[in-house]
Amino acid sequence: MDDTDLFGAGGSHGPGRRPLLGLTVLVVEDSNFAAEALRLLCLRSGARIRRADSLKSARLHLQAYRPSVLIVDLGLPDGSGADLIEEMASARPRISAILGLSGDSFSEDFSIAAGADGFLPKPLSSLADFQTMILRRLPVDLLGAPPSVGEDEIIHPDPIAFRDDMAHVADILTETHDGRVLDYVAQFLRGVARSAADDDLAEAAAELAQIRRDGAPVGAMAARIAGLVQQRMQGDHLL
């Protein structure tokens, strides 16, 4: 999916309520669930959001326009988000705020090393934390009058987006168990599971990643993952 101009900023309730009003945020994220969380955070903050779900799609966006804020997931289907961060950090003119995004805490170091101004850990839920992270990294001349963070709010993405992610993984596992594909499935599921506070799925994804690192047979683990994914598609696991 490649969503352009998904949601406008809407009306303003004042800088304290919508401190990112007038800004455009490009989100590079392959998970529908995580992207839905960011959509809600941007909407509540007054920002316009565009989304790309791969490095290729993001680069096409960036050829056409330059957002105020770039948020890049580190694990993408066609490569590492750190590569895009490095490209954009050295580009001139530079995007005002570049943030890495991941469910893996160690990814913060990769983001900063690549040139990111900050890092957003999954799950994304606090509106105040999201606004603060961005506002602290934007230049004063872009903000105009110093904005303030509004009252905090915990956002709750639509569970349908979570099931969409599960359907995506189910399709992948039906088509192939290629090693590189399983590596992608493991990192994708880790991020989605942490965003959804699904400990069982996160643990299974971590086990799959470890099996791949050890070079051990993956058949049994892939089957277990497929079963967990099917349960969540059927709604047996409630967020």
From TrEMBL:
Signal peptide: none annotated. The keyword Transmembrane helix does not apply. It comes from the Bacteria. The modification 4-aspartylphosphate is found at residue 73. SMART domains: REC. The keyword Phosphoprotein applies. Residues 24-137 form the Response regulatory domain. GO terms for biological process: phosphorelay signal transduction system. Keywords: Phosphoprotein. PROSITE patterns: RESPONSE_REGULATORY (PS50110). It holds the Pfam family Response_reg. Gene3D superfamilies: 3.40.50.2300. PANTHER family: RESPONSE REGULATORY DOMAIN-CONTAINING PROTEIN (PTHR44591:SF3), STRESS RESPONSE REGULATOR PROTEIN 1 (PTHR44591). This is Response regulator.
